[in-house]
Amino acid sequence: MAALQKLPHCRKLVLLCFLLATLWEARAGQIRYSVPEEIDRGSFVGNIAKDLGLEPLALAERGVRIVSRGRTQLFALNPRSGSLVTASRIDREELCAQSAPCLLNFNILLEDKLTIYSVEVEITDINDNAPRFGVEELELKISETTTPGFRIPLKNAHDADVGENALQKYALNLNDHFSLDVRSGVDGNKYPELVLERALDREEEAVHHLVLVASDGGDPVLSGTSRICVKVLDVNDNAPVFTQPEYRISVPENTPVDTRILTVTATDADEGYNAQVAYFLEKSPGETSEVFELKSTSGDLTIIKDLDYEDATFHEIDIEAQDGPGLLTRTKVIITVLDVNDNAPEFYITSATSSVSEDSPPGTVIGLFNVHDRDSGQNAFITCSLPENLPFKLEKSVDNYYRLVTTRALDREQFSFYNITLTAKDGGNPSLSTDAHVLLQVADINDNAPAFSRTSYSAYIPENNPRGASVFSVTAHDPDSNDNAHLTYSFAEDTVQGAPLSSYISINSDTGVLYALRSFDYEQFRDLQLWVMARDSGNPPLSSNVSLNLFVLDQNDNAPEILYPAIPTEMVPPAELALKPKQSPRHLVTKVVAVDRDSQNAWLSYHLLKASEPGLFKVGCTRAVRAHQRSPAGQRRQSSSQAGPRPRQPSLRHCHATPGRQDPPTSWPIWAASSPPPNPTIRTSLCTWWWRLGGSLRPGLCHRAAGARLLAQVTPDAGFRRQLEACPARDFVAEWGAGFPG
Which CATH number is 346-443 given? Predict the structure, then answer.
């Protein structure tokens, strides 16, 4: 670079090469550009948008970016203009050394469709390196007996540039005894040799000073020099000779340091001091001298630094053998580094998402990544895999790119999070592997309706409850998350039995607790069937309904009421009953009819409170008033009876028994039905019923228990006899033909 700064005409060459950089070609999905080295940062390389046939704005929208692997980013892409520019200084010699052409490859990624385009940029050489010799001054010793035509190999120069900018020629300053001959080796390099043109005479001139100039073919031409000091000696007329013209060996890259890998040998036909041979590594600008060491006395070549196949697959070493007076010969050692499987595959995640919706269709791309192994051959053959039983698979693309895609629909309620392990395994023996982890969150959608803990609910509330009392609580669960699982409770219907539901009961929308808005009366309202709805907060929301049967429990809040005999008033005298004279005991005088509006609290017992003649009449639990003793003829007797359970105020009626009257009236203020309706409603209570059959009063018991109403026949003393048939819906009494015993 110092030589470049001294030559102003070099900038013209840079400009010319820069103009040629606009040449590109695109074939088989690859875009190619050419750009000279050492141009300024931000210099234009090419227009990606134009070469892809896209509008510049489309690149930014599609998420265009450069994807490179394992190298400092040398180029930058403007996503708005589509221009590819240099991102830093580019030194071709640092990147490619003597390799030509120098090609840099990277990929352009369009993230919207995860499309990869290959880009190849050729870095063209400029003449920024002058030829350099390994030593600035070379000392040669030649016997004065050496005949003209004798050749002495000289130290050759090295030029880091390539092509025309590389080393092209050598020149020697004018003198009377020596000329320069340049030979081309099989490797393409030029090797200078000093040719003795005229016999030497040490006594005439003991030392000859020469200047060797190495020049390249650049414009302007750059050159380097080496001073040669030729000392004229006596008699040493043989140079050392190597046993092989060239040495080739292969060494595994894991060979330990300090291992001897080769011994070179050279012989000299001279004797004594003139035949003493020493070995030297020819100094070069590369790293070869830092990797290997040559023992000057034995010719042993050893490794002094770890080899790395991935950094250099071979090493080329020039070894010199020099005898005592200074004659030397040169040979080449080519060391091939053998690859061993010492590098595990590497992952490069190009693009990956951290969250995916659970309703994403199969084939949804989760991520794009690249795998690479720095080894070679079978050691670099990579296979990628996933754990089994995961809803994902790997799809291989070009250039060891893989796409991670879904294979089936995801269910967040089953798995809300995946830690996906990607395994890359090479083909070495033993093989090496690397794991990479992709953390994926499954986003919830509202795909689950709320579910109640039971299919239906039954609740019970005693009548006369206070307003605002908590009645019941329902609970639903939604397996979704966040708003999709936030539930509100409400009634599915606004009315019940034709009346507004809001006048009976309310529900807390957050907790599902039901509250009574009124005090219920069992005798007016015995049950309430509701539909409770739980709705989530998703979009759109989902809901579920459940039925709730609310039963009002009876309290003993009604006193019995005697229907017959009629209540005495100013207009209605007490009932008078006629008895035949000398009527026998247990003769039925009359039947007292009483009712209680309560349910299980409606079991009634009957008692005579007072009588004008105690002991003459008796009333049984079946409401029948009978003669207890034989009644004297023609006497009028008066008695009062009561009916009702003990906790409540009894109901009183007065009647007169008069001998000579027979049957009670045939008109009774009670319920009657000719036949029961089908499918009787289930109730849980006890009730006593009376009905009429052919003008005669029949007793019975309707027992609402165990899911059915049972109608049973009773004896005059209210003893339970047997079940006769199912009791129908409330306020109905079935009839049967059995007469009242007695």
Answer: 2.60.40.60
